[in-house]
Amino acid sequence: MKINTTLLIVICLLVTLFKIHAQENKDSIIEQHKITALIADYAKAREAKDSLLLKSILTDDIDQLVSSGVWRKNIEASMKGMLKSSTTNPGTRTLTVDNVRLLSSENAIVDAKYQIENSDGTFRKMWSTFIVVKREKNWKIAAIRNMLPAKP
Fold it and tell me: Is the dihedral of CA 89, 95, 99, 103 positive or negative?
C-alpha cells in the first residue's frame, strides 16, 4: 500500500511539473511572437519614415550604436539619426529575426540579420542586436547594436 501511495504522489508531481512547464513554453512562444512583431514594426517604421510608429516602439532612454561607430543616445537623437539615415542611405531595409532570447518576463535580446538593398541592386549585409524591455504590457526597443561582419 505504501508503494502505491508514493507512486501516486510522484505521478501527481510529474503531471503538475509538466503542466507548469507546458504553460511556460506557451507563454514564451507568445512573447517571442510579440517581440518578432515589434522588430517588424521597427523595420516598417524605418522604411516608411513613420516617426509616430517609431516613437511608440522605442524607450525614451534608447541608445543605438550604428555600424559606423556613432552612438545615438536617447529617443530624440536616435529617431533623428534613424530618419536621416533612411533618407541619406536609400534602399529597401529587411530585418529578419534570427533568435529571441528571453532573459526574463520583461527583458530579451533579439539577434537579426539586417540587409539593405541599394538602388543599384547591391546589398549591404549586417547584423543587428536589439535589447527589448516590457513596459506597461508592451515590448519596446531599449537598445540597438548594428555591425558589419568582419571579413574572414
Answer: positive
Range of the domain at 16: 2-147
Per-residue pLDDT of 28-39, as tens digits, reads 888 999 999 999
CATH number at residue 135: 3.10.450.50
Number of domains in the chain: 1
pLDDT digits (tens, 9 = 90+) for 100-134: 999 999 999 999 999 888 888 888 898 999 999 99
CA–CA separation, 87 vs 49, rounded Å?
A: 8
- Cβ–Cβ under 8 Å, residues 129 and 63: no
The whole-angstrom separation of Cα 117 and Cα 104 is 35
Q: Is residue 152 part of a domain?
A: no
Tell me the CA distances in angstroms from 116 to 86, 107, 124, 139, 147, one per residue in order.
10, 27, 5, 25, 13
pLDDT over 80 (residue 5): no
Amino acid at 83: L
Q: What are phi and psi of 117, to 5 degrees?
A: -90, 115
End-to-end C-alpha distance for the chain, whole angstroms: 67
Residue type, position 57, single letter: I
